[in-house]
Structures
1.
Amino acid sequence: MLAMTRADLGKEPTEVAAMFDQVADRYDITNDVLALGQTRAWRKATFRALEPQSDDRILDLAAGTGSSTAPFAAIGAYAVPCDFSLGMLGEGRRRLPSLPFVAGDALALPFADNSFDGVTISFGLRNVADTSAALAEMYRVARPGGRLVICEFSTPSHEAFRTVYLEYLMKALPAVASKVASNPEAYIYLAESIRAWPDQEELSHLIQRAHWSDVQWRNLTGGIVALHRAVKV
Ligand SMILES: C[S@@+](CC[C@H](N)C(=O)[O-])C[C@H]1O[C@@H](n2cnc3c(N)ncnc32)[C@H](O)[C@@H]1O
C-alpha cells in the first residue's frame, strides 16, 4: 500500500514519539527477542551496504537509542544519531554517551544541505508519517555522491514462508511482546505497520521518485527485512 500513512494506522507523529518514549528502556532487549536473534546480522549487513570510511560523516536517522549508529562510530566515522523521541535519545545518551545524539524530525532535519557522506535509517522509515518527504529530506542532507541505505521490514518472497511469517507477526509477536515489552500495544502497532508497508519493489520506486539514483535492494532472512541502497548523483 503506497499511500499508507500513520493516520491509516490511527497514530499521529506525536503519538509515535510518545510510544517510543514509553518503550525506550526495554527497546533493545525486546527487539532482540522478537527478531529471534537476527538483529545483529541485519545491523552488520546494513553497515557493509553503506561502505563507511573512517573519515565519513554519517547520519543515522530514526536512530532511537543509537544501537544502529554504534557500528559506524566504532570505525572512527563521525556518526550522528538523530531521532524525535526524547525518551529513546535519553536512553541512548545514558548507554552510549560518546555519540552526538541530536533531536530532530525526519520531515524537517536540523542539518544543512549536502552535510553527510552517508545517510542510513534502520527500522525507522516505516514509522515516519510521510515516507516520500523523509526520502527527500535524506536526499537534501546527503552530499553529491553520498550513499543511502535503508534497512526495513519487508515482504518475504517465498509464499509458504510469507504465510508462516504473517501468522507469527499477527499472533505470536503480540503474545510474546505482552510478556517481555514495557508497552505491548506498541508491538501490536509494529505488526500492523509491517503488514501495511510497501514491498521491496514499491519502496524502490518511492526512493527513485525522491531523486535518488542507482537504487538496488536485497533481501535478508528471506525478505523479512530488505536493504535498499541508492546514491545521490
Ligand atoms: C523501531 S525504532 C528504530 C531505532 C534504531 N534505528 C534501531 O534500529 O534500533 C524507530 C525510531 O524511529 C523514530 N521516529 C519515528 N518517526 C520519526 C520522525 N519523524 N523523525 C525522527 N525519528 C522518528 C522513533 O522515535 C524510533 O526511535
2.
Amino acid sequence: MAVKDQVITDNYAIYNDDCIEVMENLPKDKIHFSIYSPPFGGLYHYSSNDRDLSNCQDYEEFFEHYGYVVEELNRVTMPGRITAVHCTDVPSGNSGKDYLIDFPGDIIRLHEKCGFHFIARHTIWKEPLWVRNRTMTHNLSHKTIVDDAVYGGVASADYLLIFRKHGENKVPVAHPTGLSHYAGECPLPEEVLKYKDWGGKQTENRYSHQIWRRYASSVWDDINQFRVLPFADCKEEDDEKHVHPLQLDIIDRAITLRSNVGETVLTPFMGVGSESYVAVGLGRKAVGIELKTSYYRQAVKNMENAPEYTKPGTTQGDLFE
Ligand SMILES: C[S@@+](CC[C@H](N)C(=O)[O-])C[C@H]1O[C@@H](n2cnc3c(N)ncnc32)[C@H](O)[C@@H]1O
C-alpha cells in the first residue's frame, strides 16, 4: 500500500494518509478495540484536502463520507469487540441565536446501521466559563441571560459513545485482579489504597471497586481537562481552526477497561497521536492514521515518547504539570 508516509515499529504503525484507504488494506476481524474523535460534522475545519472529513460541503455529505469509515471499522474489528467515539453536540453557528444539531444521535444511528450495538454513553462535564473563554461562543455568557435568556446556550458536554460489534467475543477482556490505576483528577480515598493489585477475592478489592464506580458512571466529572499531548508546534499559518487533542484520562479509561494488554488499538483520525500514545504506554499495540501532514509529524514525535507514558494515580505526578 502506497501512503504519503509511515512509521512502523514493533509496537505501533502510524500512517500519513486517508483513513478509509488505509483501513481498506487492513485484514478483516483483527482489531481488538478502536477509539477516536472524528471531525465534528464540519464544526472545525482542519485542511482543504478533499479527503478531509472536516472539509465536506454540508452535514449530509459528512455523514456519507463518515459512513465509509464506520463500515470499514466494522469490517476490521473482531466480532463482539468495542469501538469508542468521542463527540459533542454541534452548534448550527455562532451568531448568538443558534441551535444544536444532535451529532451524537446521528453517530449512534449510523453505527446501528453498520452492525454495532450502542451499549454506553459517558458524558464529560465542561466548566462554562472555561468553554466560553476557549471557544468565544456568543450565546454562552452571563450577558446573554441578562439581555434575553431565550438565547442562552450551555457549555455542551463531550460524550464518549461505546459500541459493540455484533457477534460473540471469543477472547474475554478480563481484569482478574481488578483495575490497578485510576485516570482522573479526584484522588481515591486513603483507606482503599492498600487493596491495589489485590490478589485475593475480588469482592474484597475496594481499590478496584472505587475505580469501577467512577468508570461505570454515565457522567465523568473527574477528567483532567489539561492532561493532553503537546500540540501547539504543529499549527500551520493558514490553519482556520486547530486540533484539540483528546484528554489522556478519557483514553486511558477506555483502553484499560475495554482491551487486553498486548492487543491492537486502532485510531482512524489520529491527530497528534493521543490515542495511539496511550495505547502503547498501556502495553497495547497501536495503529494510527492521520491525513494532515503537520499533525502526523507531531504524532511521530509524540509516539517516540509513548513508552514513557505515566499512568496517573501511580507513583509519579501528572505528565505535563
Ligand atoms: C478531532 S481531530 C482528532 C484529534 C486526536 N484525537 C488527537 O488527540 O490529536 C480529527 C482529525 O481527523 C483528521 N482527518 C480528517 N479527515 C481524515 C481522513 N480522511 N483520514 C485521516 N484523518 C483525517 C484531521 O486532520 C484531524 O486531525
3.
Amino acid sequence: MEKTLPYTWYTDPEILRREQDRIFRSAWQYAGHLGELPAPGTYMTTRAGRTPVVVTRARDGELRAFLNVCRHRGHPVAQGSGKRETIQCPYHAWTYGLDGSLRSAPRSDEIAGFPQEELGLCRVAADTWGPFLFVNVARDPEPLADALGSMPAQVAELGLDVDELVFHSRWETELEANWKIVCENFLECYHCQVAHPQLAEMLDTSADAYALSTDGRLSSQRGPTRRGGGTTMHLDGELPRSQFHFLWPNLGVNIFPGKPNISIGPMVPVSPDRTYRFLDYFFGPSVDQAWIDELMAFDDQVGREDRDLVEGVHRGIAGGGVEHGYLMGRSEQLIGHFQELTRAALG
Ligand code: FES
Ligand SMILES: [Fe+2]
C-alpha cells in the first residue's frame, strides 16, 4: 500500500525552507484579477507565495509586475491598490514611475555618480488567463500557458467563458495546518460522503462516478450532479457538472454545477504549521443575487467542515510518534501525484 510523505515533512522548518526555494520561487502564483487594474495609471499589491509584488498598468497600458521592495533599503514601496502616476516609498520617499523606473530620491544629488538608471524596481513576470492575473518571481519562468496546461481548455469545454466573468468577492483565511495538508484535502473526495453531507447530496462522489485525472502538474476532479439527490441548491443552468482543478504546487480552482461560477486561489505556506488561503469568486454577468448567495452559503459550509479536518490532521501529525500514513489507491491517486511532484522537486 502506498505511503504518504513522512509526517516530519509537515512540521520541519528546514523542509519548508526547501519548499520555498525549490517549489515556490519558480511557480506561477495566482495574484488577483484584472478588475483591480482597470485603467492606465493604476497599481495593486499582492504576493507570489511570500514575496511581495506590485503590479502596475502604466500610462502605456502595459501590465508590469515588480518586487514590491524598495531599492534603497527594502521597505515595500506600495500599499493596497490605487490610481496614481508614481509610487513613493513611505520610508525615505524614493519615488518610482509605474514603469518601475526610479524618478527621484531625496539628496541623491549629494552622491557623486548616483546610479539612478540602475535603481528601478526589480521586474518579475506577469501574465493572464481571462481575468485571472498570475505572477512569477523566477528569473526566467516558463510561459504561463505552459504551466496552466489543459485547464483552460477543460474549463471552456464545460461551457464556461472566463472572459465574461465578473469579480464578486475575495474570501481569505489562515488555517492552523501545513500547506500540504490543505492541498491534499482538496485533492480527494474520499472524505466527502463522511464530512460534507450537503456536497454529497449535490454531487455523486462515489468511486465509480467521481472522475479523477492528472495531466502534467494538473489534477482534475469531475463530479456529476446527483439526480434527485435531495440537494436544496438550484443546479439548473449552463454548467452540467462540477470541475475542481488543482495546479501543482498550490492553486485550487472550483466550478460548481448550475450558473456560470468559478472560485480560484492559492494555498500559501506561512510557517510549517500555518497556511494562508484566499479564493476570488467570479460569476457570469447575469447570475442573480439569490443564486450567488445560495452558492456562497453552501461553499462557506464546506469550507468550515474542511477547516476542522485539516487542522485536526495537523494536530495528529505534529504530535510525533506516527511516521507516515497510507493512501487509498484510486480514491487518493491525486494525493499520490501531488506527493510525487513534491518529492521530486525537493530532491
Ligand atoms: S527604504 Fe524606501 S526610501 Fe528608503
Ligand atoms: Fe473537503
